[in-house]
Amino acid sequence: MESHLVLHQQSESTVFLLYTAGIILLLAVISYWYASKWKKENTSQLKKEEKAALKQKTKKARAAGHVLLSLAVLVVIVHFAKDLGQSYDVNSLNLKAELDVTEDAYYGAEHSDDPVSYAMKIPTSGTHSPHDLKFGFYTEKPATEMLVHNLEHGDIIIYYRADAKPEIIDQLKFFVNFRKAGAGILAVPNEDIPADKEVVVNAWTKTMALDEYDEEKVATFIYTYINEGPEKIPAQFRRGGGTM
């Protein structure tokens, strides 16, 4: 499970950097607080030597605050630079896992603004909204009619349980960054996931339901079926989804 280790390490590293930046920022605030406190205490009632000593302490505390604040900013920059430098090459998801994929019945691809009654609880085709959704991780389930439109464009939808384990959530947030041409990934909570399944992964007329979450199978499914919908949109017209 090498891929799991890589993703887990990325998540742990990200959290560590953010905690580190937070601690350094707190120390900077404390240094500035002491500098302000000692400045107020430096009154004319003090002796010359006491005033000089207090002034020196204030100067050192303020300098420490400047250094710590700069360091905190640097750590945050490193954190975001890591994300910017992350490669999301779909080819890296070709983990060659054995897939058990259901070829679903085709229910059409017409557009309608009206609510649709689907033959499947988690549909992979059928009449759908003329509007699709942006790629990404969702904490609430959007309209099914819009999700089906995303499938038509070759997007992959990963349905997860609302009470999914944190490590699953972390990995889904990683997967939604992948793109191929004008197609992408959506991770969406869904209460219609069968009771004996942990996640359901969909492409157009394709369903993979997993008893237990398996990142290698999810990755391989994405690699195999992304941008394979009947209506492919070039990337220059569909950046991030939600445009059709």
Structure in words:
The chain is an alpha/beta fold and about 240 residues long. The chain has 2 domains: about 1-85; about 90-235, no CATH class. It contains 5 helices and 6 strands; from the N terminus they run ααββαβαβββα. A 6-stranded mixed sheet has the order 1-6-5-3-4-2. Strand 5 (about 200-205) and strand 6 (about 205-210) form a beta hairpin. Helix 1 (about 1-40) packs antiparallel against helix 2. The longest helix is centred in the N-terminal third of the chain and has 40 residues, at about 1-40. The two termini are about 40 Å apart.
SSE blueprint and pairings:
Elements: H1 2-41, H2 48-85, E1 102-103, E2 136-137, H3 144-152, E3 156-160, H4 166-175, E4 185-189, E5 199-203, E6 206-210, H5 215-225
Parallel strand pairs: 2-4, 3-4
Antiparallel strand pairs: 1-6, 3-5, 5-6
Helix pairs in contact: 1-2
In short:
By secondary structure, the chain is of the alpha/beta class. The chain has five helices and six strands. Strand 3 (156-160), helix 4 (166-175) and strand 4 (185-189) form a beta-alpha-beta unit.
Rounded Rg: 26 Å
Morphology call: elongated
Biggest sheet character: 6 strands, mixed
The helix count comes to 5
Mean pLDDT: 90
Percentage beta strand: 5-15%
The neighbouring-strand order within the major sheet is 1-6-5-3-4-2
End-to-end distance:
38 Å
How do the SSEs run, as a string of H and E? HHEEHEHEEEH
Oligomer: single chain
In total, the number of strands is 6
Instruction: Find the structural class using helix and strand composition.
Output: alpha/beta
Integer tally of domains: 2
Q: How much helix is in the residues?
A: 40-55%
Give the low-confidence spans: 1-9
